[in-house]
Structures are given as structure tokens and as C-alpha cells.
Amino acid sequence: MEMEKIIERLKYLPKIGLAITYPILLIIALMLFFGRNLENWRLDFLLNAMPDFYDHVSNFSISFLIYITIGYTGLIVGIKLRALIIIGVFIVLVNFMVEFFMTFLNTPDLMDALYGIFGVVFGLIFIYAAKKYGLKINESYIRERG
To answer: Which of 2, 3, 99, 103 is buried most deeply by CB count within 10 Å?
Structure first.
């Protein structure tokens, strides 16, 4: 019964494609992240194209994971795309601050910052596609709101 009450409060529900795509993207991003330390998880075609890919992939993965998680959840509860874009810009700014101004936490590295930007850009593509094609109106939400 408690789960039904939670679902009734969601403005949108994911269509099956989105419900499948989101966890697959999470798994891919986590596999890329763990490939940084686990050589068996590394993808040869990425190493051939970009030999230093796994030196920077953590910034991509972390930015992407945070952004799509916030975006997916935000879309379902009805947060506007504009607000989610602002959150993406905030993630990029935080990434740059950590890379260049918090040198006690991190060695400044432009490539790390760029990978973080790419994580947000790919996340925004996912969020936009999810908003446009992956959601359906939650009938329980409409009935409850009258």
C-alpha cells in the first residue's frame, strides 16, 4: 500500500524504454568508472582511440551518474527541463572549481574538467530524450489532484 501512495505522488511514469535505458546507462557508466582500476573491464577500442581515457573517465562517470540520477528523478516528479539544465551547469561549475581551485583535493587537470563536461552533455542528451519520448502522464496523480 505504501508503494501505491508513492506512485500516486509522481507526476509522470517512465515508459518501458526509459525504465530499461536508465539502469543500463547506470551500469555502463559504473563499468567505465571501475575500468579505471580493473584492467579486465577496460574496453580496447576506447584505449586504442584515446590511450589516456581511463585516466580521466572518473570525472565523466561521476558527472554523468549524478546528472542522470537527478534528471531522471526530477522528470518523474515534474521538475521543468530548464531547472534540470541549470543543475547541469552547476555540476560543470563545481567540477571546474574542484579541478582548478581546490588544489588541496586534486591536481589541476583540464582534461578531467573536459571529461566532466562531456558527462553532463551526455546526461543532458539522455534527460532531453527522456522528457520528449520516455514519460507518460501518471493517471493516479491526475485523479488525486482533481
So the answer is: 99
> What's the whole-model pTM score?
0.89
Q: Which of 43, 60, 35, 37 is nearest to 112 (CA)?
A: 60
H runs (alpha helix) in the chain: 2-8, 16-34, 44-49, 53-77, 81-100, 110-133, 139-145
Whether the Cβ atoms of residue 63 and residue 119 lie closer than 8 Å to each other: yes
Q: DSSP state, 12?
A: E
Distance between CA atoms of residues 18 and 85, nearest Å:
19
Taking alpha carbons only, the member of 94, 126, 124, 127 closest to residue 112 is 94
Q: Are 59 and 115 contacting, i.e. CB atoms less than 8 angstroms apart?
A: yes
Q: Give the residue among 119, 8, 6 at the shortest CA–CA distance from 60.
A: 119
Q: How many domains does the chain have?
A: 1
pLDDT of the residue at 99 = 87
Joined together, the cell numbers standing for residue 137 give 502522464
Q: Look up the domain containing 52 and give its range.
A: 2-145
Average predicted confidence (pLDDT) for the chain = 91
